């Protein structure tokens, strides 16, 4: 992934722009194409399912017609008044009975069977004194104990359908409206294969897993066009579904179409795997691809125009930047566009004009600096005159034996010599400490040695440099605002110089009255009279950085400690 990101990052901007446009455009086009294809599949699937439903509905109507025809045949038998009379008559003459059976019953039943070739057996079971007559008339005692369907006769008065092994049977009790003593049951066995032969043609050439079966009200399979799939069909009967639902058997989704066969109280089921429905989405897919390709051609053309228009101005800006890189700073760069590229061009032009102004300003400052250095060179004459004058005073003092005056003059000369530092802003820590010692010696003479001074200097600090006149103002503040303000007891001044790992800490501590919190919070921020700490702190931060400077720690009655922190810095100019 990072490799492709690097490749994209190193592309030209025009290539990135075109690639970005293409990606942004392809995503909705791909989604639109996928949506169109899926909608087409759903539409064709619905059409295929509708066609299957129509086919199954046609088969269901055909089966309803067949069952209705069988029931009309049954009705024609049980409602025949001649048959009812014969079966209800208690014959005393066997001759008369034989004539009625031979002249009426036998021809009538033979006619019914000849007209309905699906009928394999037509029998009336009776409990009267009627003797058995071939297979047309049999005793009711034959079926009372052995036929399961006989138990259902008492519960219904209409035609009943029953699957007896591999044989399909229809039974119907005779009505007792005209002849109350009539007790008979019509039994009709049908040729199952011929009865369901219209269902054997229902198949889908594209599928090897579809099937059709009929179930009764008790979910027993009456007919199946695929005996090997009975187990799957039984599982389908256990799943509660509506007429157009999906069922899932063994991880395979089936479309299940159901149509009721109301005459026999059956249900016709047809199922087919969802994936096997034939769908020809070629034309729609071709149209979708053609539409996407057309959109892509238009998009590429528009992207090329937009990218060229946008990149052209970036190329111009890049060309101007190259000219500036090679030193041409006198160009006037402006743009009338208000977009981001126009703003960038105008800002670059403003920056270039500002650079020209700064170049001019720096050149003028250089001239001013050279003039100041010349004046500083001239001003060096005055320190020489001061040093010579102090030397004369020192020589005269020694001549008359005034050693105190000679000492003060010597310290003063050394102080000014290090303080002036030949006009340089940086000095060594060693010279700055010597300058501070000279200042302290002068202050001791002026204070008649009324306070004590302690120096704790580590030798390692001498090799580094610091800002000129940075320690002396701290010592002066300690004497003026600390020791001089002390009302009782002798004053003490402690000067420490500690070398840390990367920094140098200068501690100046006095035992004066301390500083209150309000002044302590303002002493390094505001320019207060008598305190030079703010200027020293700002000079240190300006030279070394904001992490360095002065910290003041003080409590009322406990004295004050000023800590100056500087880096271990060596000025290359002084070396």
UniProtKB/TrEMBL annotation:
Q: Which domain of life is it from?
A: Bacteria
Q: What is its EC number?
A: 2.7.13.3
**Keyword Cell membrane part of the UniProt annotation:** yes
Where is the protein localized? Cell membrane
Q: Which SUPFAM superfamilies match?
A: ATPase domain of HSP90 chaperone/DNA topoisomerase II/histidine kinase (SSF55874), HAMP domain-like (SSF158472)
How is this protein situated with respect to the membrane? Answer: Multi-pass membrane protein
> Protein name, please?
histidine kinase
């Amino acid at each position: 992934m990072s490799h492709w990101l690097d490749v994209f990052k190193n592309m030209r901007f025009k290539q990135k722009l075109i690639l970005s446009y293409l990606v942004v455009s392809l995503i909705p086009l791909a989604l639109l194409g996928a949506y169109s294809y899926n909608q087409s599949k759903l539409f064709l699937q619905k059409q295929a399912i509708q066609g299957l439903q129509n086919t199954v509905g046609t088969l269901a109507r055909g089966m309803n017609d067949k069952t209705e025809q069988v029931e009309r045949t049954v009705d024609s038998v049980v409602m025949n008044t001649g048959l009812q009379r014969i079966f209800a008559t208690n014959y005393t003459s066997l001759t008369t009975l034989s004539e009625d059976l031979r002249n009426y019953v036998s021809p009538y039943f033979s006619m019914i069977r000849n007209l309905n070739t699906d009928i394999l057996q037509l029998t009336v079971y009776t409990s009267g004194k009627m003797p058995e007559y071939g297979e047309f008339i049999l005793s009711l005692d034959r079926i009372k104990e052995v036929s399961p369907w006989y138990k259902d006769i008492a519960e219904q008065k209409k035609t009943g359908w029953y699957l007896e092994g591999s044989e399909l049977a229809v039974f119907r009790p005779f009505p007792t409206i005209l002849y109350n003593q009539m007790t008979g049951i019509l039994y009709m066995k049908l040729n199952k294969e011929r009865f369901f032969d219209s269902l054997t043609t229902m198949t889908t050439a594209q599928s090897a897993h579809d099937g059709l079966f009929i179930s009764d009200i008790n979910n027993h399979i009456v007919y199946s066009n695929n005996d090997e799939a009975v187990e799957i069909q039984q599982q389908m009967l256990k799943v509660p579904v509506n007429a157009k639902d999906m069922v899932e058997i063994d991880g395979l989704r089936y479309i299940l179409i159901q149509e009721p066969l109301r005459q026999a109280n059956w249900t016709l089921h047809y199922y087919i795997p969802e994936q096997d429905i034939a769908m020809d989405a070629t034309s729609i897919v071709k149209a979708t691809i053609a539409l996407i390709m057309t959109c892509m051609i238009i998009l590429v053309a528009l992207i090329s125009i937009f990218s060229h228009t946008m990149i052209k101005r970036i190329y111009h800006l890049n060309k101007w930047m190259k000219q500036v890189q090679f030193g041409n700073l006198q160009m006037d760069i402006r743009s009338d566009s208000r977009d981001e590229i126009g703003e960038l061009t105008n800002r670059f032009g403003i920056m270039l004009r500002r650079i020209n102004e700064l170049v001019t300003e720096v050149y003028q400052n250089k001239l001013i600096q050279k003039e100041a250095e010349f004046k500083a060179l001239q001003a060096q004459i005055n320190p020489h005159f001061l040093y010579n004058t102090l030397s004369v005073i020192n020589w005269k003092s020694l001549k008359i034996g005034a050693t105190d005056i000679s000492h003060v003059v010597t310290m003063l000369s050394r102080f000014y010599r290090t303080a002036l530092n030949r006009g340089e802003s940086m000095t060594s820590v060693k010279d700055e400490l010597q300058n501070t010692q000279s200042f302290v010696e002068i202050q001791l003479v002026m204070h008649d040695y009324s306070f004590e001074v302690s120096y704790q200097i580590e030798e390692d600090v001498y090799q580094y440099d610091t800002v000129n006149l940075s320690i002396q103002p701290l010592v002066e503040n300690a004497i003026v605002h600390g020791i001089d303000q002390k009302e009782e007891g002798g004053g003490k001044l402690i000067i420490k110089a500690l070398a840390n790992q990367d920094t140098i800490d200068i501690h100046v501590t006095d035992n004066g009255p301390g500083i209150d919190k309000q002044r302590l919070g303002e002493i390094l921020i505001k320019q207060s009279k008598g305190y030079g700490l703010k200027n020293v702190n700002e000079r240190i931060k300006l030279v070394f950085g904001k992490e360095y400077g002065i910290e003041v720690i003080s409590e009322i009655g406990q004295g004050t400690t000023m800590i100056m922190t500087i880096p271990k810095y060596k000025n290359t100019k002084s070396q």
